Amino acid sequence: MFIGIVVLAIVAAWIVITYNGFIRGSNEIKNAWGQISVQLKRRHELIPNLVECVKGYMQYEKETLEKVIEARNQALNAKDVRDSVAAENKLTSSLHGLLAVVERYPELKANANMLSLQEELTSTENKVAFARQHYNDSILSFNTRCESFPSVIIAKIFSFKPYEYFQISEAEEAAPKVKF
Prior knowledge:
The chain has seven helices and no strands. The protein has helices spanning 2-55, 62-76, 81-102, 106-109, 112-147, 151-157, 170-173. The protein starts with a helix and ends in a 7-residue tail after the last helix.
């Protein structure tokens, strides 16, 4: 009888500890997404300034500017993580296109405001990449728990599901082509 109670107590403790580990992991992922959101908001706030700075110089590049603005608006209106990831990938791609076009305008490249905005955008992109890495690391840890024995049992009982990674698109992986 005593051994049965001890075994039952050990099993109950394991369930509680494992469940709490899933909750902690889920909260870490939410926090990591929050950090990404802060950096993406900063990025979204920079884009109108970048577009305004470029607009006067790039009279013949209206389509490029419109793509950036459209992509920013889609990113701002994303409903969930999946939509946000897709919209941010599109925004990154359109920003690469804009910065490649900027290379065609030497006086714009030398403009102090443009240089400052490019530096700020580069810094923000680095922070987004760092935050995305932290987010994906948190997901890796959580998903490993969800799929590993014996914690997979608790994951199934309490309906913990693996999260999706914040992955970059193939377009984002490719370096922008600069034409002169």
